[in-house]
Amino acid sequence: MDWRGSGFLVIANSVEPAALADYEAWHSFEHVPERLTMPGFLGGRRFVRGRGQERRFLTLYDLDSPDALETPEYRHLLANPTPASRLMRPLMGNFRRFVYRERARFGAGCGSHLGFLRWTAPEDGMQDDVAALAAMIGHSGIAELRIGASQDTQPHPAFAPDPALSVRHAAAMLSGTDGASLTTALKSIANRLSGPVLERSVYNLILAY
After folding, report:
1. Exposed end of the chain (fewer CB within 10 Å): N or C?
2. What is the pLDDT of residues 102-138, one digit of tens each?
């Protein structure tokens, strides 16, 4: 399954370990499917890394464009959570939410691991970064790559404003078949990007929609 649309939304969070089973059932079978009924939401994937208290989730939504986050239907959904969503929101920690406009994509295929890379880069000066990342396709098990530039969006009404949202940056999503190889590849490419790296993580795929 390839990525779709011209934008993508990335949400990362932790969850209270005692609530993990309830969180998994809610997020997989209510929350993400509910989001995919919204105008402009084209698909989604759920990922996880770490264990126990260090467990961290990442949800990736394909958007027709970043404007999908500004529709009346989606804003109404955020302001009017379901009973299960209302219960889960206080149990989610380290909440991060970024929206990107796609700049480039290469390759094809959905691997079992996802590399998430964020770095500071001027939107009009990413050509060398894009070329370096594109050259990774077919190496270290990397099958598909998507690159985006961060966009301004209204904050989520249920979570405190994130200072990181004010930092313009680029992001790359790398879909691969081997977590260890992907981790090594991300560390190598980070040293060749045009600006400082803000985040570098590798996640395991839970579910694709």
Report:
1. N
2. 999 999 999 999 999 999 987 677 899 999 999 999 9
CB–CB of 115/187 below 8 Å? Answer: no
Q: Give the distance, in angstroms, between the CA of residue 117 and the centroid of all CA atoms in the same chain.
A: 10
Q: Centre a 10 Å sphere on the Cβ of residue 43 and count the other Cβ atoms it contains.
A: 18
Structure tokens, 202? 């590798």
- pTM > 0.90: yes or no: yes
How far apart, in Å, are the Cα atoms of 163 and each of 7, 97, 121, 126? 22, 11, 17, 23
Digit-coded pLDDT (tens) for 38-60 = 999 999 999 999 987 789 999 99
d(CA 173, CA 207): 16
Going by C-alpha positions, the residue among 148, 68, 62, 149 that lies closest to residue 110 is 62
